[in-house]
Write a structure and sequence with these properties.
By secondary structure, the chain is mainly β. Helix content is 0%, strand content 43%. Strand 4 (41-43) and strand 5 (51-57) form a beta hairpin.
Length: 187
């Protein structure tokens, strides 16, 4: 399965390299080398720079907080403030004028399952958010810290999604005006 973003992941994109330690935890981000391939996951060295993953994004806050070590490729898209969207969120765009609330990164883990890395940035502090695979089911929850940041990975079966799929992140209680929609993913 090849994963592709359904639209531009972020306005003002620049290639960034996200770095991960040998436990798959995010450690830092920097401008990507000219020859870097967007979407590629590469084993690099050791310590805080054991693996790298190249994305297109505004800044390093889009890097997933964890990346499955078995990943060879992944796709990262923005989470934008918008209350409603279709199952595939084809009407969701990142115009570059609204604040981005985080990102979703999907890595194809096995033939049967994929992993979604959810990263929330600058949201309401100490708040639980539902992670929903749109028109399929809730995959879990994530709770922001005192700064409104959070990260978590969830797995979902590949056969649960159609050719175009997306995610919705909403605070428990479904407050209007506080939902985030991902841009589309394509199988």
């Amino acid at each position: 399965m090849v994963l592709a973003a359904g639209g531009p992941a972020f306005a003002e994109n620049q290639p960034l390299t996200c770095w991960y330690n040998d436990h798959a935890d995010f450690t830092s981000a920097e401008n990507a080398a000219a020859a870097a391939t967007v979407g590629a996951v590469t084993r690099y060295g050791s310590g805080d720079k054991t693996y790298n993953y190249t994305i297109l994004a505004r800044d390093g806050t889009a890097c997933p907080v964890q990346l499955p070590l078995s990943s060879l490729t992944a796709v990262t898209v923005a989470l934008v403030p918008q209350d409603d969207g279709s199952c595939g969120n084809e009407n969701v765009v990142d115009s570059g004028t609204a604040a981005v609330g985080g990102s979703v990164t999907v890595a194809h883990s096995t033939d049967e399952a994929s992993t979604a890395g959810i990263r929330l940035v600058g949201l309401s502090p100490n708040t639980s958010y539902r992670i929903v695979l749109k028109c399929v089911r809730q995959l879990g929850t994530v709770r922001t810290d005192a700064n409104g940041n959070a990260g978590r990975t969830v797995d979902f079966p590949n056969n649960a999604v159609g050719p175009v799929y997306s995610f919705e992140i909403s605070p428990e209680g479904d407050s209007t005006g506080n939902k985030l929609q991902s841009l589309s993913f394509k199988k």
